[in-house]
Every structure is written in structure tokens, then in C-alpha cells.
């Protein structure tokens, strides 16, 4: 995920705390609802509330437990990053101890579920720590979450295959989850031995472990294969290979496509790519060069993240950046970050961005973000149909999903996830079953038009 819905109001907040003057109207989003919030807020800190919602949503598919998340939410001090770390690290340790106890007692199901939750809580503990890139907890927590996650998936009835796929200048870590149908008797899929396969990637701060709970369980339950991956700038590659985001995102996706197409349990004609959050830009970007995909799903559609960020900044800050005044821009950002009560979503956005782009320089980060963009010419290079989603209360990039759908023309299938059904947040957060119903249902229709490989 990237930036909460409340980030859309950040410009006004920054003006107040920094004394800047910004009279620019915020561009309206034609799909935004009239509600001030689409979800009950678990913290008075808007960014904490959003990330708590993100981790609470993992309880839908065994990645968390509601009582454990709500207890943490009750104890975390709004805006206090150490308090956030302390409560989630505590949960990671305690639930991890339960997992080990269950495993020693050969209570395999309890062990698996506890390892999954412990892994999630260690990832949560890490979430706001990237402002100090030398903080050793960034690495120790990730080692703990990875160990717990690997123990959990290896206790599944059908464990995934973990692979390191070679790209030109890096390797792509990926988990291939085989189909694990949960279909009624007599309703089994009739795909043969070679099955439809969904590649799933996330974005600015997401990790592939969470994708198992949010997407892959829905995919495999339908009798399809699912593979998650991470590329440069994303958590594992950033830590283990020290590589930030690259605009040539097809270089991360093509090795995954190569891998699945050579598997005997994959139908090479029915391989689709899903991208969530910033991945809603990365997935179609990859498809401009990778033409072996049967379909792309962009959740939510995103054309230009830099544009969205700049729309939320005060005028003075924007002018410093667009004029190329690197020193002035960095000094302005540093001034804001030094304010004790600076909004968490601004601090985290800069901290995570500089970390993910492998720099300590805010100007270099935001310039790098600008290298990722889609326009009509680039979108015309996509050869397959594209599902473009929008959330009714998603304030990340208002209007961009609709713009993407218009630019794609007949290749696009647009769908608005609605607030009244609890699906209007960024990436339909908390309503993953609705997301799967619409996106995987559409993919089923697309796949039906493809000749089966036996």
C-alpha cells in the first residue's frame, strides 16, 4: 500500500505547520463519495489508522487475528513510531512462541496459523522504521518475519515452491503456490493438467508475503496457480541486494513469466498479471514490453505517482522541486521532517520513498518516482485486455484510474469498488473477497476465450 486516503488533505496540514501559502484548489475526483471516512478509524493518527486497517484485513485469510490487532491498536500511542514498533514486535514474539509450542506438540494447523500471524506482526513492527536506514531492526525484523512465513507455508497441505529467478542485474524472489481447489463436489474446474496462473505483485511498500493472504488464497481456492514476486525497491530485494526501484519494471516481470511458462502445471496461454497499489502502475508498465500475458489487472489504476504526490504538496514546495532547486527542496523537506507533530503520512511517505529508491535525498527520490509513468503512447503498447479498478474513497490518485481506462479504450474493463459495501478504500482494503469476485471472475471470462494447452 502507499499513502492513506487521508494523505489527500496533507497539503493543508503542511501549509499550517510550515507557514507556507497554498491557494491551489485540489483537483476533484469524480468518483469520490461524500463520506469523510469509509472505515471506522482505529487511531487518531490517520496513517496509523490506515495501516492498522491493512493488517486487520489480513485476518480475512489467516494473516492476522482481529483480537490481536485490536489489542495492539488500543495500546499504540498515535504518532509514536516506537510505540507502534513495541506493540507489534511484542505480538510477533508472543504469537511466534505459541507457534513453536504448537509445532513441538505436532499441532500442525495451530502452528501454521500462528507462524503466519507472527510473520505479519514482525512486518508490521518494521513498517515505520525506515527513516533511519541504518536501524538494524529493519533487517532483524525481516529475518524473523521471513523465517516465520517459511515455516508457515511449509505446513500448508500444498506448500509453495520458493525460487530465485535471474534477471539481468538482480534476482527476483518468488513463491509459486499450486492450485488448492476449495470447490463443491461436482463443480471442479476442467482446465486439465495445465492451469491458469496468476502473477501477483505489489508496489511502493508492499511485500509478497501479504499477497498470499490478500490474493493468492483466493486464486488457489478457485483451482488456479498463483505466484508472487518482488522486484528492485521492494522489501526483500532492497534489503538483500541493495537495489532501489527501476523504471524498466518488465525486467522484474519477464523472468517470472519465463519461469511459469516452462512449468508443466501452467497453461502458458492463461497467464495474467495483477498489480496492487503502486503495482497498479508497475503491472501495466511491465505489459508494455512483456507481451505474453493474457491479461493485466491494475488495482487501482495509476498513471503517474509523482503527479499525485505533487498535487498534495504546498505551492512553494512544488515550485522548488519543479524548478530543479535540489538544495532548496531538500532543505524544505528537512524543515518539515524536523517539526515534532508533522503528520505521520508525510514523514512515512518520504522515509519509505527514500528507502525504496535507495537514497537519502528527498529530491532524488521524487525525481526517481517521476521516471514511472504511463501515457496514451505507452498504454497503446499493451496487447492484452486490462482490468482497471478504482476505489470510491481512494485518495491516492483521484481520477487516474478513470483516465487510464479512457486511454486504454476498448482494451480496458473499468470497475468502481463502492464505499457502501466496505470496498471503497485503496485497493478495496478489507474487502478482498469482493475484489477477488470481480477481478478473478473477469479473468475467468478472458481465459475462456483462450485455447487450452493440454
Characterization of this structure:
By secondary structure, the chain is an alpha/beta fold. The chain has a domain at 41-155: de novo design (two linked rop proteins). It has 18 helices and eight strands. The protein has helices at residues 10-18, 46-57, 66-75, 81-104, 108-126, 137-153, 208-221, 235-241, 250-261, 279-287, 305-311, 315-322, 326-337, 344-356, 362-369, 376-379, 400-408, 432-448, and strands at 161-166, 171-177, 195-201, 225-229, 266-276, 295-299, 386-391, 412-417. It has an eight-stranded mixed beta sheet with strand order 1-2-4-3-5-6-7-8, sandwiched between helices. Helix 17 (400-408) links the parallel strand 7 (386-391) and strand 8 (412-417). It is globular. The model is unreliable at 4-9 and 15-36 (pLDDT under 50).
**Helix share, percent:** 40-55%
Number of helices: 18
How many DSSP-defined strands? Answer: 8
CATH architecture of one domain: Up-down Bundle
GO molecular function: hydrolase activity
Family: Belongs to the AB hydrolase superfamily. FUS2 hydrolase family.
Keywords: Hydrolase, Signal
Pfam families: Abhydrolase_6
Briefly characterize the structure:
The protein has 454 residues and is α/β, with parallel strands linked by helices. It has helices spanning 10-18, 46-57, 66-75, 81-104, 108-126, 137-153, 208-221, 235-241, 250-261, 279-287, 305-311, 315-322, 326-337, 344-356, 362-369, 376-379, 400-408, 432-448; strands spanning 161-166, 171-177, 195-201, 225-229, 266-276, 295-299, 386-391, 412-417.
